[in-house]
UniProtKB/TrEMBL annotation:
Residues 438-458 are annotated as: Disordered. Residues 18-433 form the Major facilitator superfamily (MFS) profile domain. It is a multi-pass membrane protein. It is found in: Cell membrane. Belongs to the major facilitator superfamily. Sugar transporter (TC 2.A.1.1) family. The keyword Translocase does not apply. The keyword Membrane applies. It comes from Pseudonocardia eucalypti. InterPro entries: MFS_dom (IPR020846), MFS_sugar_transport-like (IPR005828), MFS_Sugar_Transporters (IPR050360), MFS_trans_sf (IPR036259). Keywords: Membrane, Transmembrane, Transmembrane helix. This is MFS transporter.
Length: 458
């Protein structure tokens, strides 16, 4: 079963613009979560925050992301991708702009919470919409932009923070927080005119409208019989959280949450440890540490490029299994040789970044491919919400571990967590390459066709 008008379409201007527009959410995610860490020094000084209150300000967006993922994923499956596609950005624009004018700590905490909700809401909205429009042979390549742009957003935050501190000092924190408004407005404008997902329209009983959207967008007529075959079972409930915890979907959501978390926790460990590593080369002191962290994020972005090719040639399953296996090795070496020369440490760090590209892309690719249209956004929202615990662990426990347990033990813990991800991939990773979303998201996936040998006929 396949939506051939979309699945076999050539990649054109519409697909590239949609990928750019949908990547705006990850760009803002990376930027907003990065910029607050830089601004906290100035915020704490001006508002006289103690350590606990500063931590609450820093974690407010993560808490908001937990609730945003749980609530707005199911809503997106019920009311549509297009409707939510711009509403969440309006909330983000308003909250970012108001952050420049806060006078009380509670105001900043509330606004950061709202920003987190909006960011988490955007992931299931934008990634589901993008997935449902992409040709099947190009999903991994186009999804690479989503994860790369997250690292670019974080790198941009540290670069902007570095420049603002150089010009205005720590007192420029209001301009740092307000700068995200410009990015959000640009993404909002880019999204104007985006059509609704035809797959969602079919799942909602609006097949005729879906045919019109496909023909007007791609210039391809769609047969009614093809659309009828895509309709979900009559008993299927749109946006049902309960559906994610039954049958094969329970196994899939467990797999996604485990491998997603096991990729995030060591990532945050290395991003926390990264400025100290670069310090051995003279880039980790004072405001230069912000510039060094920007470089770190760009290295991770580059690691996605070779993975993009492997996901489409070797396949998802082999790539993610080997990626996790190879990601363990640099962490083990860092644990055993924590006082290695700076050049060796940076090389090991770059190797980890290179190997992490496959899981990084599939953090958003797999949850969109492994679930059907009527619960796709709910699945992505659930994955975002539950993996925020991993983000919190990476943000708060890694620095504590570095102080109390030391670098070596921290790297060994990271290697152990990564190995758990490897085991989960060996046990549960499915191959979705070159398959339609209706096939990969089915509760009983169809077997991949066996290629004909020479001399055989279909």
């Amino acid at each position: 079963m396949s939506f051939t008008a979309i699945d076999d379409a050539p990649v054109g201007r519409f697909h590239r613009k949609l990928a750019m527009a949908c990547s705006g959410g990850p760009l803002l995610d990376g930027y907003l979560l990065g910029i607050v860490g830089i601004a906290l020094t100035g915020i704490s000084a001006e508002m006289r925050l103690d350590t606990t209150t500063a931590a609450v300000v820093g974690v407010a967006a993560l808490v908001g992301m937990f609730f945003g993922g749980l609530v707005f994923g199911p809503i997106t499956d019920r009311v549509g991708r297009k409707t939510m596609y711009t509403l969440d950005l309006l909330a983000l624009i308003i909250a970012s702009a108001l952050s420049m004018f806060v006078t009380e700590t509670w105001q900043l905490i509330v606004l950061r919470f709202v920003i987190g909700v909006a960011i988490a809401a955007d992931y299931p909205i934008a990634t589901a919409l993008l997935t449902e429009w992409l040709p099947r042979r190009h999903r991994a390549r186009m999804f690479t932009s989503v994860i790369i742009i997250w690292y670019v957003g974080t790198a941009l935050a540290y670069l902007v923070g570095y420049l603002v501190i150089e010009i205005l000092g720590d007192a420029g924190w209001r301009w740092m927080l307000g700068s995200s408004t410009i990015l959000a407005v640009a993404v909002f404008l880019l999204r104007i005119g985006t059509p609704e997902s035809p797959r969602w329209l079919v799942a909602s009983g609006r097949a005729q409208e879906a045919a019109q959207v496909v023909e007007s967008t791609l210039g391809t007529p769609v047969a009614e019989a093809e659309l009828a075959a895509l309709a979900p079972e009559p008993t299927a409930s749109r946006g049902s959280i309960a559906a994610l915890f039954r049958g094969i979907y329970l196994r899939r959501i467990t797999f996604v949450v485990i491998f997603f978390s096991c990729a995030i926790i060591p990532l945050f460990a290395l991003l926390t440890f990264g400025p100290q590593l670069l310090g051995s080369l003279g880039l980790g002191h004072g405001n230069l540490s912000n510039l060094g962290t920007a470089v770190i994020n760009l290295v991770f972005a580059l690691g996605c490029l070779p993975a993009m090719r492997l996901l489409e040639t070797v396949g998802r399953r082999k790539t993610i299994i080997w990626s996790f296996a190879l990601m363990v090795l640099p962490l083990l070496v860092l644990g055993a040789w924590s006082h290695a020369p700076g050049v060796i440490v940076v090389i090991l760090f770059c190797l980890y970044a290179l190997f992490s590209g496959g899981p990084g892309i599939l953090e958003w690719g797999y949850p969109n491919e492994l679930f059907p249209t009527h619960v796709r956004a709910a699945a992505v929202g659930m994955a975002v919400a539950l993996t925020r615990f991993g983000a919190a662990i990476g943000t708060f426990l890694v620095p504590i571990s570095l102080v109390s347990l030391g670098t070596s033990a921290t790297m060994y813990i990271g290697a152990g967590i990564t190995f758990v991800g490897f085991l989960a991939c060996v046990a549960w990773a499915e191959e979705t390459r070159d398959r339609s979303l209706e096939d990969t998201g089915a509760s009983v996936p169809a077997p991949r066709p066996v290629p004909l040998t020479r001399g055989e006929t279909a």
